[in-house]
Write a structure and sequence with these properties.
With 545 residues, the protein is of the alpha/beta class. It has helices at residues 6-18, 37-43, 70-79, 91-94, 104-115, 133-136, 141-158, 184-189, 193-204, 221-236, 259-269, 286-303, 338-351; strands at residues 47-53, 82-85, 119-126, 165-170, 209-214, 243-246, 249-251, 273-282, 307-310, 361-364, 377-383, 391-396, 399-405, 414-420, 426-436, 439-442, 446-450, 459-462, 471-477, 485-490, 493-499, 508-514, 520-530, 533-536, 540-544. β12 and β13 (399-405) form a beta hairpin. Residues 1-26 form the signal peptide.
Length: 545
């Protein structure tokens, strides 16, 4: 992935060291004329949101109502066009006693959003935590279904037309596993609790968009597959599911490039929306943190995600499992950190063009260096003219193999290079896409036929001039892909072997000394091998008197 502009990051780090002495404000600090995250998102019809907005005074181990702080209010309304609650919607806080709802917190958040023309997402209708004792005491499935229906109907009915999308079920899978968590709902209703919750939610608000929220799938491939399988099963059973909310909590490192794209495309193929729901980055390095923030947002936008939310925005209200980490985009005094500028850059790069990218040329270098199609080559993209893209994707035989950000602000042509090594013999068809907010433009394909991945064919010889049974056998590879090992065989039996240093297209040689070979005519061969295959010499006869 490309590195963020060093000038912006260094400026942000410097500002972060000095801002504490200046009055705190909602300004981004570097240039008041620069657009906010909200302004950039709204140019392309995107939602950029902050989750973890606590608007209540209940005791959850966190501070009281964040909206009491005018700095919090100012940054939230200036930078974001969507908000969602932290724990305010969790069952024990919104209905702490059976039939007694505490609406103050959510009402306050919804009123704030309406005042500032912001959307609200209902996060946490049911989850693994925060269930009051009277709910946990229910053991009859029918009684629990009725409690769910009553709870959903009251909440979704009250906010009908004010909250249009809901995380109905959050974190159904084990945190580090692939099976369902055996939570309060599972223990009474079994694995069907998920389907039942979505059906109850659909009945409570037929027009709302209903999401399943999950964590860590971008960094845990087995869990990623388990979530996909769960979703496919739900849809096959007719469960009213509209989207997947990917939490995207990152620790130290971000997801591998292309993983977000693959997930989004797989769920889009099922007819589902995908959102980034709780993005934050837990690390100690502000530059690395900025890289991860920017790269996640850039790839998500290019993949077609239209709603991106962070899990809070100021370290004044941070939550982290990495002691000393400060995972959010603004510091404790509401000053923007490098991560803020990285997200702003990603948004600005995506939305700045008023037409789809131009059509780039795709080429490959197979055979260019030494005439060998040995599986080591580059695939190059060049956009010589036309509207630039903000993101680039490369597919090999229709499988995504590379993804990276591009800088659309440069007046020079755009280019990207992907290097491949050690490819096996076969045919590889590459195609690429350039993306910005106005569309996706595909390149023509370029095809690589690898036919020289295995070693070239060696020649074998001996110095057995006197035919006395003691001689040196020599193998030479004068031309072709190099080997990493050799094996001499006499009459089919191994008589010598070893390793070779590959440096294609340099010549290679190997020797073995044989003594005491018995009289007769013997057959000598040598086999050269690398990871992609083997090549055997033409056999020669060795006569011993």
């Amino acid at each position: 992935m490309r590195t963020l502009k060093s000038t912006a990051i260094l400026a942000a780090v410097t500002l972060g060291l000095t801002f504490a002495a200046a009055p705190a404000s909602a300004s981004t600090g570097d240039d008041d004329t620069e657009p906010t995250l909200r302004q950039l998102a709204e140019q392309a019809g995107l939602l950029i949101g902050s989750g973890a907005v606590k608007a209540g005074y209940f005791d959850d181990g966190r501070g009281p109502n964040y909206l009491d702080d005018p700095r919090f209010r100012d940054v939230l309304s200036e930078q974001f066009n969507s908000a969602s609650p932290e724990n305010d919607l969790k069952w024990m806080f919104i209905q702490p006693e059976e039939g007694e709802f505490d609406w103050d917190s959510l009402d306050r958040l919804v009123e704030f959003a309406e005042e500032h023309d912001m959307a609200v997402k209902g996060h946490g209708l049911i989850s693994n935590c925060c269930n009051p004792d009277y709910v946990r005491a229910i053991t009859d499935p029918g009684e629990l279904r009725a409690a769910l229906a009553s709870h959903f109907e009251a909440i979704m009915g009250r906010y009908d037309g004010k909250i249009d999308r809901w995380d109905v079920v959050s974190e159904p899978l084990e945190v580090f596993g692939t099976t369902l968590q055996q939570n309060d709902w599972y223990r009474v209703l079994g694995p069907e609790y998920i389907a039942e919750a979505f059906r109850i939610a659909r009945a409570a608000d037929p027009d709302a968009r209903l999401f399943l929220n999950e964590n860590m799938v971008e960094v845990n491939a087995p869990k990623r597959q388990a979530l996909y399988d769960l979703v496919v099963g739900l849809l096959a059973d007719g469960v009213p599911l509209d989207g997947i909310a990917l939490q995207m909590h990152q620790t130290i490192n971000g997801p591998q490039p292309g993983v977000i794209t693959e997930m989004v495309e797989s769920y889009h193929d099922l007819g589902l929306e995908v959102s980034i729901a709780e993005l934050d980055v837990h690390t100690y390095d502000p530059v690395a943190q900025a890289d991860i923030y920017g790269d996640v947002v850039a790839e998500a936008l290019a993949a077609g995600v239209t709603e991106i939310s962070t899990w809070g925005f100021t370290d004044a209200h941070l939550y982290t499992w990495l002691p000393g980490s400060k995972p959010l985009m603004f510091d404790e005094d509401y000053n923007p950190k490098p991560a803020y500028f990285a997200v702003r850059d990603a948004l600005q790069e995506f939305v700045q063009s008023d037409s789809a990218p131009g059509k780039a040329a795709l080429s490959n270098t197979s055979g260019w260096v030494n005439g060998l199609h040995d599986g080591n080559y580059d695939v190059n993209m060049n956009l010589w003219h036309g509207t630039p893209g903000s993101y680039y994707r490369l597919y090999e035989n229709d499988v995504l193999v590379a993804a990276q950000r591009l800088d659309p602000a440069s007046n020079s042509p755009q280019s990207a290079t992907s290097s491949f090594t050690g490819k096996q013999n076969g045919t590889y068809v590459y195609r690429a896409e350039l993306i910005n907010s106005e569309g996706v433009t595909a390149t023509r394909s370029t095809t690589v036929v690898v036919k020289d991945a295995a070693p070239g064919k060696p020649l074998v010889s001996t110095d057995n001039w006197d035919q006395d049974g003691s001689f040196v056998a020599t193998a030479n590879l004068w031309w072709g892909t190099n080997a990493t090992s050799y094996t001499f065989k006499l009459d089919g039996q191994v008589v010598g072997e070893g390793t070779l240093t590959a440096a294609t297209p340099n010549a290679q040689s190997a020797q073995v000394t044989l003594e005491g070979v018995g009289p007769g005519t013997h057959t000598l061969t040598v086999v050269f091998t690398n990871v992609n295959g083997s090549a055997e010499s033409k056999p020669i006869d060795v006569k011993v008197r």
